[in-house]
Design a protein that fits this description.
By secondary structure, the chain is an alpha+beta fold. It has one domain. Helices cover 26% and strands 25% of the residues. The chain has ten helices and 16 strands. Strands 5, 6, 7, 8, 9, 10, 13, 14, 15 and 16 form a ten-stranded mixed sheet that branches. It is globular, with a radius of gyration of 22 Å. The termini are far apart. It binds 1,3-dihydroxyacetonephosphate (13P) (2 copies) and magnesium ion (2 copies). The site of one 1,3-dihydroxyacetonephosphate (13P) has 15 residues, from loops.
């Protein structure tokens, strides 16, 4: 049977700053989504990471379905009303328009959806990240799907040695979806050349070359581009199917042991290590560090199992300690050089105004010697 998994994610308000949405808000959103059971949904799950709430819906209606998107949008609206009533910070932050218009894409919430024929057993992973951007998944996906140094299955498993097809989006292009498809292993260097640039080129989807099945989907929203000004980082969600014709769960998780540096962190304007955390972890140090959670599920005939919390394993404690050390280390240099994002990526208007004001005060010093004037 064809099953669709849809994650819609939004920040509609949080307690104590951009920290965590709180139980009442989660319950309110869950209760709203539950109204769609039977008629629209076969199952659902609501989770939080940092100040973001993700609604995972299981249904047979395909991707981009208006009623599914409406259900999530209205749940977020109801959550926003509660957030206002509770005085939560940033109430309604990611709902950028007042009225729903058929599909939440471009309206603020992040979306990651895929439709597939359920395998006899269908394990998948749901990732949620906060205080970072969709390109934060670039490196872990590259390593998990294209590098045999990470993924032994690329050598050992006949289903995945054929490689994968990556769909990469140019998120700097705002007139439409500008995408390119690259296949691995032969397109490895081209892929790396693009994925280097996390804030411009983002892996949107990955398909198996063995059977054409979709393995992964990432939300590629750029709130910055939608709103035309800073409204919060994009805090991406991702779905990854695992095992058999795809990498194993542990191969998908392994790259997160790097705690690689990503854009985001305080005011969406810095570089920090991506720390793997347990479910419902909030933010703290310097409004971060950037965090990622991962829940494992199986789905059968549209029904979900309970979630298993994959970064709760004791192994990840060491990684968390290292991530904290990396965060402290880069924060020691404050605004200087690579600790803060380049001008083109700065999310807050303040520095832009400062630089504009200073622009008027710059002048070119007259050349002291005629030779310099000739060179100039
Ligand atoms: P299965 O063969 O059970 O899919 O698991 C592969 C494996 O060995 C995981 O590491
Ligand atoms: P969020 O995008 O998670 O709301 O964070 C905003 C921010 O500026 C944190 O410092
Ligand atoms: Mg927020
Ligand atoms: Mg957030």
């Amino acid at each position: 049977m064809l099953t669709t998994l849809s994650i819609l994610k939004a920040d509609v308000g949080s307690i104590g700053g951009h920290v965590t949405p709180g139980k009442r808000l989660l319950d309110t959103i869950s209760r709203h989504v539950a109204k769609g059971l039977d008629e629209l949904l076969s199952d659902y799950f609501v989770g939080a990471t940092g100040d973001d709430i993700a609604i995972l819906m299981v249904h047979p209606r395909g991707v981009g379905d208006e009623e599914i998107h409406r259900l999530a949008w209205e749940a977020f609206k109801e959550g926003t009303a509660l957030a206002h009533a509770q005085g939560l910070y940033g109430a309604g932050q990611d709902l950028l328009v007042d009225a729903f218009s058929g599909n939440v894409k471009g309206m603020g919430p992040a979306v990651a959806e895929m439709e597939f024929e359920e395998r006899p057993n269908e394990p998948f992973l749901m990732f949620m990240a906060d205080k970072t951007e969709p390109g934060a998944y670039n490196l872990p996906l590259y390593l998990a799907f294209a590098d045999p140094m990470n993924t032994a299955g690329l050598l050992l498993s006949p289903e995945i040695t054929k490689g994968f097809r990556f769909t990469v989006m140019d998120v700097g292009y705002v007139q439409g979806d500008r995408i390119i498809e690259l296949t691995t292993p032969e397109g490895l260097y081209d892929l790396a050349a693009l994925l280097r640039d996390n804030d411009r080129f983002v892996v949107e989807a990955i398909h198996s070359r063995h059977d054409g099945e979709q393995a992964a989907v990432v939300s590629t929203t750029r709130l910055h581009n939608i709103a035309g000004k800073y409204t919060g980082k994009d805090d991406p969600v991702m779905l990854v199917r695992v095992q058999k014709n795809f990498p194993a769960t542990g191969e998908i998780l392994a790259p997160y042991a790097i705690a690689h540096y990503v854009g985001g962190f305080m005011r969406g304007s810095h570089i920090g290590p991506l720390m793997p955390v347990t479910r419902s972890t909030g933010c703290s140090y310097f409004d971060g560090p950037p965090i990622v959670s991962c829940l494992g599920f199986c789905v059968k005939n549209g029904k979900l199992t309970e979630a298993t919390d994959l970064f709760a394993h004791p192994f990840w404690d060491t990684v968390r300690t290292r991530a904290a050390e990396k965060a402290i280390e880069i924060r020691r240099q404050g605004f200087s050089g690579p600790a803060m994002l380049p001008y083109s990526e700065l999310e807050y208007g303040g520095i832009v105004h400062i630089l504009k004001r200073l622009e008027a005060r710059f002048h070119v010093r007259p050349a002291a010697h005629p030779a310099e004037a000739v060179l100039a």
